[in-house]
Specification:
40% of the residues lie in helices and 27% in strands. It is of the alpha+beta class. Strands 1-2-3-4-5 form a five-stranded antiparallel β-sheet. Strand 4 (90-99) and strand 5 (102-112) form a beta hairpin.
Length: 306
């Protein structure tokens, strides 16, 4: 068998293609490693999401070949987006406000050491770990307050919860959904759908107030997952999150095929409920009663102390 003759020019093209493809793989590997490092330095992915409602996590390489991580979160101190760029051993941070298709840079920092990464994030956004302590105390009171309240829909035995920065007196679900920051809690779901949760603490991470909710119709398709954060499992499965689950569940496709009105992802200690806005009955009346009785005062006391 005679050897195959290949021209030098063709060999050069093959080598050039190989180098280019592997260079891209190396870039992607560096980008992902850097993103994981930044997440760990901010306290870990789970804690970051619980505290900020972080969504739309993206990683990549800048035009100058520096790895970056960016994500959106519920607006605080006028910002709802951060991009963190790793340059050698220091970080550049860009905080901004995303609204619709627009974006405005609010604050920028250069040459931040890893030891100052958390403090810069906290001082700029106003989000601190003490919020978790506040949430637990206020949520306990709200849970007790709701324990003897009647449902509009008599078929329901448990309230669902929606976190918002709008006070109950002014709250309107449709307006809140259309609010410029709504995509931080509705994610990339089709228009008109939103998340609710059975866990008060989780709802509180999306805003200063929690609105108890009921549903008009409860026909549903339910999936059980062995995890204490089913919303994160859904995000990874649907594609909202930067990372993927170990296995693909196909929640959304199966929900659409079922023609049910409600999708429930049931975890070990809470459930994530997804439905369309018109199916939700927000109980503003109960929220107004609760915050007027003292829930709001607790928040005011905390803000005054800090």
């Amino acid at each position: 068998m005679e050897p195959v003759k290949i021209s030098l020019a063709k060999i050069e093209k093959i080598v050039e293609k190989y180098i280019k493809e592997n260079k891209q793989l190396v870039r992607e590997s560096i980008s992902e490693d850097a993103a994981m490092t930044i997440l760990r330095q901010l306290g870990g992915h789970n804690r970051l999401k619980a505290m900020t409602g972080a969504r739309h996590l993206l990683h990549g390489m800048t035009s100058e070949n520096n790895p970056f991580l960016s994500f959106k979160f519920k607006r605080s101190n006028g910002v709802n987006y951060v991009k963190i760029i790793l340059r050698n051993d220091l970080y550049d941070l860009e905080f901004g406000h995303v609204y619709g298709t627009g974006y405005t840079v609010k604050k920028e920092y250069e040459g931040v050491g890893v030891e100052n990464l958390k403090s810069i994030f906290t001082s700029t956004t106003g989000i601190t770990t003490i919020c978790e302590y506040l949430n637990e105390n206020v949520n306990m009171d709200l849970s007790e307050f709701l324990s003897d309240k009647k449902f509009i829909n008599p078929k329901r035995k448990q309230f669902l919860y929606h976190g918002t920065s709008i006070s109950p007196e002014k709250f309107n679900l449709r307006d809140d959904y259309d609010f410029e920051d709504s995509n931080t809690w509705s994610g990339d779901l089709p228009e008109g759908y939103l998340f609710l949760t059975t866990k008060l603490r989780e709802a509180k991470t999306y805003g200063q107030y929690v609105i108890p909710c009921e549903l008009k119709w409860y026909d549903n398709i339910t999936f059980n997952v062995n995890a204490n954060n089913p919303s994160q499992i859904f995000d990874k499965d649907y594609g909202i999150d930067l990372f993927k689950n170990d296995k693909y569940y196909g929640f959304w496709e199966k929900f659409e095929d079922s023609e049910k009105r409600v999708l429930i992802i049931k975890g070990t200690d809470r459930s994530t409920v997804i439905t369309y806005i018109e199916n939700v009955i927000p109980r503003n009346d109960l929220a107004v009663q609760f915050y007027n009785m003292g829930g709001k005062n607790k928040t005011k006391d905390y803000n005054q102390k800090t």
